[in-house]
Design a protein that fits this description.
Blueprint lengths: L7 H17 L10 H22 L2 H28 L4 H25 L4
Helix pairs in contact: 1-2, 1-4, 2-3, 3-4
Length: about 120
């Protein structure tokens, strides 16, 4: 493995961030500094924290940053669900993102399991 860019969990995080940018382009202009910005920041935070933790070079730091990525994923899910409830986009537009977020969450949990020290 050459680095964090080879990690499937990072690649999927990048894809989810890209999809989030695309979906939020349709949000109303008045949400530009509100829910649009918050959803995008949370989405970008997922792969960014995976990369940063990897780059720190220690297992405890990596675990800490992967946990932050996990929190950002839950934050993104909440933003997307709220956008659907508020009618900022069609619920059909966010369903694929929520499905991807669910899968990514499982991948992050698996990564955390592998990173935890064995008793």
């Amino acid at each position: 493995m050459d680095g964090y860019r080879d990690l499937v969990v990072w690649q999927r995080g990048m894809s989810l961030a890209e999809a989030t940018y695309r979906v939020t382009q349709a949000f109303p202009r008045e949400e530009q500094f509100g829910l649009t910005s918050q959803a995008r920041r949370a989405a970008v935070s997922i792969p960014a924290n995976i990369a940063e933790g990897y780059g720190r070079g220690t297992r405890p730091a990596y675990i800490s940053f992967v946990r932050i990525a996990q929190g950002s994923l839950k934050e993104l899910e909440t933003h997307l669900l709220l956008a659907g409830r508020l009618g900022l986009c069609r619920k059909e537009a966010i369903q694929p993102l929520l499905a991807e977020a669910d899968e990514l969450g499982r991948m992050i949990r698996a990564l955390l399991t592998r990173l935890r020290p064995k008793p």
